[in-house]
């Protein structure tokens, strides 16, 4: 087994993504920041079509704005794929507002040396491109 294989066995990609997505479903800032701290470096970068934020506090603030605007929203994910310090996963957001259809996208993540998210790049696919989560 080479170093890359040894490192891969210590990363629980499912747990990282579960914590990250779980944070999007929390209304409590204290709980959200605690959850983000388990999966993200304090100064991690989060890049999406809406812009770039740096740090878990800024991400938590962005999540808070989304939760205030869409208090019934639920974010889910498909199982992640991981190799060589990078992972990807597909997510789905349902605003549950009776107006908008769920939308989907893909996140591509660089894992830092400490095993947490260093950089997350998110691409929104839209309402029609992907099948819904079952």
Molecular structure report:
With 134 residues, this protein is of the alpha+beta class. It has a single domain (3-126), classed as Nuclear Transport Factor 2, Chain: A, CATH 3.10.450.50. 34% of the residues lie in helices and 36% in strands. It is built from four helices and seven strands; from the N terminus they run H-H-H-E-E-H-E-E-E-E-E. The radius of gyration is 15 Å and the shape is globular.
In short:
This protein is an alpha+beta fold. Helix content is 34%, strand content 36%.
CATH architecture: Roll
Q: End-to-end span in angstroms?
A: 37 Å
Order of helices and strands: HHHEEHEEEEE
Large-scale geometry = globular
How many DSSP H or I helices? 4
Mean pLDDT: 90
Strand content: 35-45%
Which CATH first-tier class would you pick? Alpha Beta
The assigned structural class equals: alpha+beta
The structural domain count equals 1
CATH fold type: Nuclear Transport Factor 2, Chain: A
Oligomer category: single chain
Radius of gyration: 15 Å
Q: Care to count the β-strands?
A: 7
Give me the secondary-structure topology.
Layout: H1 3-10, H2 13-24, H3 29-39, E1 40-48, E2 51-54, H4 56-69, E3 74-77, E4 81-83, E5 86-94, E6 103-111, E7 117-126
Parallel strand pairs: 1-7
Antiparallel strand pairs: 1-2, 3-5, 4-5, 5-6, 6-7
Keywords:
4 helices, 134 residues, seven-stranded mixed beta sheet
